[in-house]
Amino acid sequence: MFGLLGLLGPAQAMPHYGQVKQAYRSSDWVLLDRHGEQLQVLRQDFSRRAGAWVPLEQISPALLQAVLASEDKRYYDHGGVDWLALAGAGWDSAVGSQLRGASTISMQLAGMLQEGLQRAAGGRTVMQKWQQIQAARQLEGSWSKQQILEAYLNLVSFRGEIQGVDALSRVLFQKQAVALTVRESALAAALLRGPNAPQAVLRRRTCALLLEVARGEQCQGLADFLSVTLARHAQPAYGHAQLAPHFARLVQQQLPASVRTEDTEQVSSLDAALQNHVKQSIRQQLLALNQAYVQDAAAVVLAVETGEILAYVGSSSDLSQASQVDHAVALRQAGSTLKPFLYAQALDQRRISAASLLHDAPLNLPTGNGLYVPQNYDKSFTGWVSARTALASSLNIPAVRVLTLLGAQSMVDNLLALGLPLKQSGQFYGYSLALGSADVDLLSLTNAYRALAQGGQASDWHWQRGGVTLSPSTSRSVYSPQAAWLIGDILSDRQARVHTFGLDSVLSTPFWSAVKTGTSKDMRDNWAIGWSEHYVVGVWVGNSSGASMQDVSGVSGAAPIWHDIMRYLHAQLPSRATAPPEGLHSVDIHYQPALEAARTEYFLTGTEQAEFVLPDSATDAGARPSITRPVAGTILALDPDIPPANQRLLLQAKGDPQQLQGLRWVINGQLWASGAQAWWPPQPGRQTIEIYSAQQQRLDTLTIEVRGAQRKEVRKH
Fold it and tell me: Is residue 583 part of a domain?
C-alpha cells in the first residue's frame, strides 16, 4: 500500500522503522528556488492527499492525548496487544452487545504495513486477526513506542482522501500539526473511528472525548465548528507556497514521471524574492490600468550568461479571468518586438548601416491579396530618417522597406534559428512580418533577445540552477557580434528614440539597458523586452480573452513593469555598456541636408561612410509631382444608401511646391480640377487618373476601378 511490499519479504516479516519512513511519499511535489526556499507545491498523486512526514515531537500533545484516549488507552502498558480489550470485545460479541474495537495502535499499524492484514469490507477473518496480533507483537519487539505512534499518525486515514497528520492539520485546520487545539484534536481522534461518519456521529464522539479529557466546555458550538472544518476538505493546504504555479508545471513537463515520483522536491533556477517582486509589480500596474480594460500580464527574467530562468509569472492571478492559463508560453502577436531581429539581419547582410537613410513615407506594396499599405503607430510620417532612428523610434514603414530588401522567408528562417515558434512560411506572413504579425510566446521571445545580449549567440533557456538540463543545449550563431552589439547600442540610445518616446520615458534607466516595445493589432497585446549587462526581462500585458485594451501601448502597459523589474535587479548591481567588438568602426558622420544631427556612428567593415547626401530628387523641393491618392489598382464600391453628394474620393499629389500650384487633374481624358489636391465623385467603371503640369506635360498616371450603381456625372474645371 505504501511502496513497502518489496521490503516485507516473508508474510510474517515486518519492515524496520527507518525503511517505512524512507519509503513514505507525500502526494505533493515541491519546487524549491535556487536557495532552497519553497516556491510551489503541486499535487501529483490524486489517489490520496498526504503531506510531509511529521516527527512525533512536532505533533500537538493534545492530539496525542486524544488519539490514545480514543484508540488505545493502555498503549504504553501492553506489548502490542491489549488482552483486556480483546476479552471485552469477545464477550460483547458473545452476548450480542454493541461491538467495540479492540485493535491497538500497534495492531492497526501492522495492518497498514502488510497487505494481507488490511481490513476487508466484511472485516478480518479469525486467521487474519491472529496474524495481526503476531505482527503487532513483532513490531513492538523491534520498534520503540514513539516510533510506532509516529508512523501510525503519519500513515492513518482521517477523512476521505486525507491521509496522515500533516495533511489533516494543513487542510482541515489550516495550521501545522504542532498547533492543534484540544477541540481540534478531539475531532481528529473521532475521525479515526469513522473517517466518513456523518456529522451527527462525529459531533457525539468528539464531545465524548472532550468530556473524557475534562474539557466538556468545548462541546459548546461543536456543530458549527464541525461544519466549517469539514467544508475545508478541498482547500489548498496551509503553508504551501503558491509563488510559481505556471513555472512549476513547466518544470514538471520537462521531468519524466519516474523522476517526479522518486524525487518529490526539485531545486530550480528561480529566485523567490525576485519572483515575489515581479508578481507584486504586475499587480500594481494592472490595478493602475483598471480603467483601460486590462486584466492580465506575464513576465520572464533570464540570466544573460547562463539562460537560467530567474523569475517566471504566467498570469496576474486573481485579477485574471483565466488565471490557470500560462501567458508566458501562450502564443500572441509579436508587434514591433520583431524589428530588432530584422535590422540585425539587414546589418549582417550589409543591406543597410545604422546611418542609412530610410524613407518614412506612404508605401503601397502589391501582394497576392491586394495592396499592403502599412502605417505608423501615430498615423503620421517622418520623411527621411536613419536606420538608427527608425528602429529606436519603432517606425513601421522603414521596417517594411528593410524587409523588402531581405524577403519575408529569409526573416522567417532567421527567427526560427532564434527558437521562435513560427508555424507558417514567409509567403503566408508577407510584408506584415516586419511589423510582428507572427504569433510568438513570451518565454521564447525573451530568450531570443538574449541572443542579442550574447553577441549573436542563441542558446536554450534553463530551469535548473547552473544551467544544467536533462537534454544538453547547443549554442548557435545567428548574428555577428558586431550586428548584435549595434542593435543593443541603438535600443539603448535615448536620442534616437526621442521622436516617438521622448527623452524621459519609462524606457530609460539610470544604468545601461536596451529595450524594445511592441503593440499588436487592435491593441490586443503589448510588450516590453530588453536587457542589461546581466539580465533579460520580458513583459506581456493584455487580456486572457484576447479582447482589446483601451488606449494602452507598450510604453504605458508593459514598459512600467519592465522598468520596475530592471530597477529592482540593479539596485545594488551596476550595468555597463560593453566596448564595441572588433570589426566595428566609429566614423564621424553628417547628413546633407541636415536631416539628423552630426554624430559618431558605428559601421560594420565595408559599410563605412562619413557623408550622407540626399539628392534633390529625394525631396519635395525640385521633385517631379506624383499621385499619392488614390493608389494604383484601388477598387472602390459605391454605397446606394449614401447620398451621392457625400461620396467623394480625395485626389492628392506631392512634389515640388511650385509645380503643384499649376497641376492639372485629368480623369478619363477630361480636365477635372487643378492644384495639389481635389475631391472627385467616383463614377462606376475603370477610371484613368492623370496629372499634368502647367506646360501640359503628363507627370503621372494610374488606373482604379469603381463599382456600384450608375449616377449622373458631375463636371468640374
Answer: no
As a whole number of angstroms, the distance between CA 681 and CA 677 comes to: 14
Question: Is there a contact between 612 and 388 (Cβ–Cβ < 8 Å)?
Answer: no
pLDDT above 60 (res 8): no
| Average pLDDT estimate for 646-653 | 88
How far is the C-alpha of 306 from the C-alpha of 312, rounded, in Å? 16
Rg (CA), the chain: 38
The residue type found at 671 is: L
DSSP label at residue 533: S
pTM (predicted TM-score): 0.78
301 with 539: CB under 8 angstroms? no
| Beta-carbon contacts of residue 100 (< 8 Å; ≥ 6 apart) | 88, 89, 92
Report DSSP letters for 57-73, one per residue.
GGS-HHHHHHHHHHH-T
Specify the CATH number for the domain of residue 633.
2.60.40.10
The pLDDT of 645-667, averaged and rounded, is 86
Q: Which of 104, 111, 109 is nearest to 131 (CA)?
A: 111
Q: What CATH number does residue 390 fall under? A: 3.40.710.10
Q: Indicate if 205 and 295 belong to the same structural domain.
A: no
Residue 662 pairs in a beta bridge with none
Assess if residue 82 is contained within a domain: yes
Task: Give the separation between CA 642 and CA 638, rounded to whole angstroms.
Answer: 8
Neighbours of 119 (CB within 10 A): 13
Domain assignment of residue 685, given as a range: 626-707
